[in-house]
């Protein structure tokens, strides 16, 4: 009881401290409390601004009912279209917060923006507590939870980005994902009481549902999780009944989200639904898969895996053909090109390939993680646990399902418990995902803190090491189990606490006068129903700051929007003024914003600049020195974004400059050709 009380108090304290820490960093970086409202809104960059705009809309509506009606029948996010925002995007969290802000008596004391950001920072407390509890459950001591939390904080650059991308969907979702992992870890404990098991399954369901509801990429993360369960179940390392319950919970959770999102096509056509259905069907066909000798079981296992994969593809293709779904085709095009299955000229796939966030994990990440000793500890624990897992898997496959030797039972339950096996496979698969796609590293690095801290406080890991070198005694095991994490905690405190204190005292201020000037001009000099075209990232801010109608936006999970974005981006391609005018007017555009940072881009190398991607997609030769593919041809027209600034009559008859500063150029389109 004392251990539980102390450990729980430490967990809650660390969670709250983390929350205050990231909130202070955000305030110090932007001087958020002192800047104007337009500057606060501009600080929500790219898609963050788009999501926050719906929270703002809900609060500005005359009533909750009118706010919901405005989201379900939205005609401001995409010009000449009425779309259902609740179906297209994961914004139920904004809806919930706006309703909560309306009904709570806090309007006099707390501005809406602070209620929003404090909620996100508060979720960081939940995140840290969940990581702490998972490590504690695995190791049996809250000291490992303390180490996990310390590592999470000292590796903040690689474990979270909440302080500068607050409304991003992953910042809502990952705390619930961490809670789900903690609940699954507890579920796999042996000899759970029936009531505890039911309550744990309920916790898994609620956290799975909330995770799915708050992030559009939930299906891909849960597919990885389903693969973890599938692999371990095939190797007989998890209780089959509990695994079945988890498959059903995943299906139920995501289908409930699908209903709430008005039967979102991307969810219905997800591989997760197809895979889970296929696994459950294959199980009913192969009931005696876990019986027989090694060769017999390997044969059955191979047939089972093949059946599940084939069924998954058949079910998925059947659903997509029946419903004519194409929402996620850009993701598969990107994956195909990324892993070397042929080069592509597809604009959407190349847009992802050229973004650093979707590239391989940089090597300097490992240098930072090693500086806190996290990476070394992680590799040490991973190696030992992988060896134990290989031994247990071999013994499970070579033994009989009906007869288990005492030695085998001992290895299965002591060396690698089901909860440890789950977390081992989880960290391996999500590690592979992070290595291949940098944006997904936050799913791995936070779990890395849990896994490494658990291993350093684990009796199984240190018992294995001491027995291997013939130095095992219960006293030595107890000493080393507590001494190693305490030494690391002292090291982290001495090395990083002064830096954290300095970081908290460092003051900066938001400064983006050109964007502020642009937003103020749009708000003052354009009609409220004006349609504005431009880059996805900028238009999200335009919607939030001015409420004007957009031609396109950064939420890219819709085929027609992707095609529309490519057409709008022709302002940066080599096209005639007539073509560009016709394209923009087809979307009802009144004003177009051109950005010098895109037109004269230097951030990416040749071949990855936005203008290069457009040239390749249009079959044109790229600018600058370097090779071009032989079938690319020179364009008959100069680059539109450069040529329009010369005020030639062929351009001025369609476009009139309305606003200009060092960064942006706004042109008004003629009403008639």
From TrEMBL:
Pfam families for the chain: Dpy19 (PF10034)
Membrane protein topology class = Multi-pass membrane protein
Keywords in alphabetical order, please: Glycosyltransferase, Membrane, Transferase, Transmembrane, Transmembrane helix
The record ties this protein, via CDD domains, to: Dpy19L3
Top-level taxon: Eukaryota
GO CC annotation, single = nuclear inner membrane
Where found in the cell? Membrane
Which family, according to the similarity comment?
A: Belongs to the dpy-19 family.
Protein name as annotated:
Dpy-19 like C-mannosyltransferase 3
Q: What organism, scientifically named, is this protein from?
A: Gopherus evgoodei
Source taxonomy lineage?
Answer: Eukaryota, Metazoa, Chordata, Craniata, Vertebrata
């Amino acid at each position: 009881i004392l251990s539980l009380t102390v450990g729980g108090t430490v967990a809650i304290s660390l969670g709250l401290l983390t929350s205050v820490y990231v909130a202070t960093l955000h305030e110090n970086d932007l001087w958020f409390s002192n800047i104007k409202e337009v500057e606060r809104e501009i600080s929500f960059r790219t898609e963050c601004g788009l999501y926050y705009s719906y929270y703002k809309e809900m609060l500005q509506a005359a009533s909750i009912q009118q706010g919901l009606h405005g989201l379900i029948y939205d005609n401001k996010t995409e010009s000449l279209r009425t779309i259902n925002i609740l179906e297209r995007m994961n914004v139920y969290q904004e809806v919930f917060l706006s309703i909560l802000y309306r009904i709570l008596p806090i309007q006099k004391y707390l501005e809406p923006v602070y209620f929003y950001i404090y909620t996100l920072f508060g979720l960081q407390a939940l995140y840290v507590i969940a990581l702490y509890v998972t490590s504690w459950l695995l190791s049996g001591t809250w000291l490992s939870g303390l180490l996990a939390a310390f590592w999470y904080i000292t590796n903040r650059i690689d474990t979270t980005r909440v302080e500068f991308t607050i409304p991003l969907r992953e910042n809502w979702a990952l705390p619930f994902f961490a809670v789900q992992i903690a609940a699954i870890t507890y579920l796999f404990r042996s000899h759970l009481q029936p009531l505890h098991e039911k309550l744990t399954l309920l916790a898994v369901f609620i956290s799975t549902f909330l995770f799915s509801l708050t992030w559009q990429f939930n299906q891909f993360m849960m597919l990885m999780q389903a693969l973890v369960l599938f692999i371990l179940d095939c190797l007989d390392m998890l209780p089959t009944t509990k695994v079945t319950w988890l498959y059903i919970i995943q299906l139920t959770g995501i289908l409930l989200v699908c209903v709430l999102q008005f039967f979102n096509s991307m969810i219905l056509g997800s591989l997760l639904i197809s895979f889970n259905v296929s696994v459950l069907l294959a199980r009913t066909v192969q009931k005696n898969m876990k019986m027989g000798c090694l060769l017999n079981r390997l044969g059955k296992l191979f047939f089972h895996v093949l059946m599940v994969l084939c069924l998954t593809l058949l079910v998925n293709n059947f659903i997509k053909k029946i419903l004519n779904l194409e929402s996620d085709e850009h993701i598969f095009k990107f994956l195909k090109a990324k892993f070397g299955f042929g080069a592509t000229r597809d604009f959407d796939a190349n847009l992802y390939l050229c973004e650093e966030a979707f590239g391989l994990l940089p090597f300097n990440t490992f240098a930072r993680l090693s500086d806190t000793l996290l990476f070394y500890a992680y590799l040490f624990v991973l190696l030992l646990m992988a060896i134990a897992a290989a031994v247990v898997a071999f013994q499970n496959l070579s033994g009989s399902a009906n007869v288990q030797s005492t030695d085998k039972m001992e290895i299965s339950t002591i060396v690698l418990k089901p909860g440890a096996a789950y977390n081992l496979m989880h960290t391996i698969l999500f590690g592979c995902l992070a290595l291949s796609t940098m944006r997904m590293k936050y799913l791995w690095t936070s779990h890395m803190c849990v896994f490494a801290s658990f291993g350093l406080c684990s009796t199984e890991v240190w018992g294995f090491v001491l027995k291997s070198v013939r130095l095992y005694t219960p006293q030595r095991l107890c000493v080393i189990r507590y001494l190693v994490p305490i030494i690391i905690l002292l090291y982290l405190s001495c090395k990083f606490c002064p830096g954290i204190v300095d970081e908290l005292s460092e003051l900066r201020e938001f400064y983006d006068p050109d964007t502020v000037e642009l937003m103020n001009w749009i708000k003052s000099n354009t009609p409220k129903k004006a349609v504005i075209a431009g880059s996805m990232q900028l238009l999200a801010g335009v919607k939030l700051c001015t409420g004007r109608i957009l031609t396109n936006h950064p939420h890219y999970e819709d085929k027609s929007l992707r095609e529309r974005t490519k057409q709008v981006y022709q302002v940066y391609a080599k096209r005639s003024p007539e073509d560009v005018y016709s394209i923009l007017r087809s979307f009802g555009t009144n004003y177009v914003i051109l950005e010098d940072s895109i037109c004269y881009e230097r951030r990416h190398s040749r071949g990855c600049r936005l203008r290069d991607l457009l040239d390749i997609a249009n079959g044109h030769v790229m600018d600058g020195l370097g090779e071009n593919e032989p079938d690319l041809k020179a364009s008959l027209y100069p680059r539109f974004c450069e040529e329009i600034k010369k005020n030639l009559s062929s351009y001025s008859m369609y476009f009139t400059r309305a606003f200009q500063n060092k960064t942006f150029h706004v042109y008004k389109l003629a009403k008639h050709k």
